[in-house]
């Protein structure tokens, strides 16, 4: 691993072999800093492929070393030197994040990412805006004809939503960049009771579970909740993303969920959803140790949860159906959906 001057790169580097789907074929190993040498151990099947991807990262470079991939034929066992082109010197990008009314957005996360010189993928460190909405971060220059993408992510409680902005970063840096955040998407829908008619007073929780194309995934754990009105209508303000909507009636109706992709727009209407009828499940929680021949005994106040496993984007995902707590005698009752 060498630089453009054919000398070892003066940086702590790590490499890993990947397949075309970017799945790891090896452990991540360090490059010898003094010589640029590295040694990867591949499984026999991977060593017979006509090519693998060698991913190079610099974990201690503070975000100023772009990630690179090289296509390498692993069959000879020894590769020609991999040349890391110079991506340019770090520059300063500064600006201000505001809402649609021109007011500053405080505590927003701001970062730049995209392709830079040498074919690497750059992702700057994330900085937070100050009370006046201003930020300053270090970046690498963009390619002359390929801007980087600047992302501004307001805090979860803000009315303003995530924004992205194409940004050409010249070798001299960039100042006074103004970033305007749109409002979050207003997502509205209606819930119906199993026998028909509006379902009023139902708690609705939107939990982000993934990203939609072109947008970063909403922050993990940034749940947004609302309740249906007398007409069964709910309204949520959300960033673009993939969400799990949990509908939690307060009566003898079960909790149900559905997955909803939210795309960038002013407003979005979700199709009406009919709640499920419930079936009551009762039982008792006991503790036992057959090996020690200890008699069974009740487990008071045990937490009990019921889940259903469904496929989401090809991956098995557990959806909680109900949660309850056993009483002092270990007895519990839960309401589960009939479908």
UniProtKB/TrEMBL annotation:
The UniProt entry, under SUPFAM superfamilies, shows: Carboxypeptidase regulatory domain-like
Its recorded name reads Carboxypeptidase regulatory-like domain-containing protein
